[in-house]
Every structure is written in C-alpha cells, then in structure tokens.
Amino acid sequence: MSEAEAPTLAVLVGEDDHVRGTAEAPYTLVEYGDFQCPYCGRAYPILRQLHQELGDELRLVFRHFPLFDIHPRAENAAEAAEAAGAQARFWEMHDLLFENQRALDFEHLVGYAARLDLDRTRFEADLLQRQFLDRVQRSREGGVRSRVTRTPTFFINGRYYGGAHEVDALRQTIRELTHSR
C-alpha cells in the first residue's frame, strides 16, 4: 500500500479515550484491539516494553475493535474493561484480560473484578445490563471509519503503521518520525 493509500486515524484522541502516558508526549500510538485476538495478545507485552523504554515520550491509547464473528467473548471482555474503567481501573482490567485471554467467560470476568477490588455488584450489573455496549460499538465504528479491518491495528501520530509488531520495528518508526520533524 502506498503512503497516499494508507489509512489515517479518523477519530482524534480525546478525553473519552483510555490513555497510558501524558498528552504532552511527542508520540501517540493508538491500538485498535480485541481482547480475544491472539495477535493482540502477542502485541500486548511488546507495547508494554516500548512504553517502559520510551516513558514520557510515548502515549498509548487503546480502542476496542472486537471481532465478534470469530471471537465470541471479545465484546463482553471489552464491556468488562469499560465497566472496570467506570471504577477507574481500565488499564488494570486491560492487562488482566490480555494475560488471561483463554478465560473470558462471565465468571472469570467477575473474578478479575474481585481481584481488582472493584464493586462487584456494580460490575456485574453493568455487564448484565450491557451498560457499556454503546461505548464499545462507538470505538469499533471509529475503527471502521479509520479503515481498520483486523486486530491489532496501530496508528502512530495518526498515521497507519503497517510494520512488524516488534519492539525494534516500532522503535525504528518512532525514530524516523523524530528525524522527519
């Protein structure tokens, strides 16, 4: 795909996004991901390492793009992350979901909420009432508008990243952005 054909991020990072890092970071990596996707699971520790290495220079943003046709538990897992986020624990739940991708049924989701010391009654009610389904769907729709078709899909500073999902390749792309400023 030529640079002119490459998709760009259709929805700018805003206050509704889940962000690790500061708004002042010179680099923003947006991931459209699916908690049941094995490729997202492999990318998870790579992104953590990259964020640890770059520190305040990198802002990570996670957006939901559940591939519910092939990952039947992905949408509920995304809703669980949002329910945890409503109790200020999105990233902790995000990490648990990726670290336990093979256990995303309702009982395990409630168990993760207990491990995070969330209000279990509220968490269960949020899941059963599908309180955050609209939010997950809006995230996915933003991905569709950005021409996302698979997970994980990354955008670095608003531009599609089609390279390898490896620390060195991501770091190199960021270095190239530094030199092109």
Detailed description of the structure:
The chain is of the alpha+beta class and 181 residues long. It has a single domain, classed as Glutaredoxin (3-Layer(aba) Sandwich), CATH 3.40.30.10. The protein has a 5-stranded mixed sheet with strand order 1-3-2-4-5. A hairpin with a 2-residue loop joins strand 4 and strand 5.
The CATH topology turns out to be Glutaredoxin
Which structural class best describes the helix and strand composition? alpha+beta
The CATH homologous superfamily is named Glutaredoxin
Q: Quickly count the helices.
A: 7
Query: In angstroms, what is the radius of gyration?
Result: 16 Å
In percent terms, what proportion of residues is strand? 5-15%
Offer a concise description of the structure.
With 181 residues, the chain is of the alpha+beta class. The protein is 46% helix and 13% strand.
Task: From the structure above, extract its key features.
5-stranded mixed beta sheet, Glutaredoxin, 7 helices
Write the layout of secondary structure elements.
Layout lengths: L17 E3 L6 E7 L4 H17 L3 E7 L9 H12 L4 H10 L6 H10 L4 H9 L4 H13 L7 E4 L2 E3 L5 H13 L2
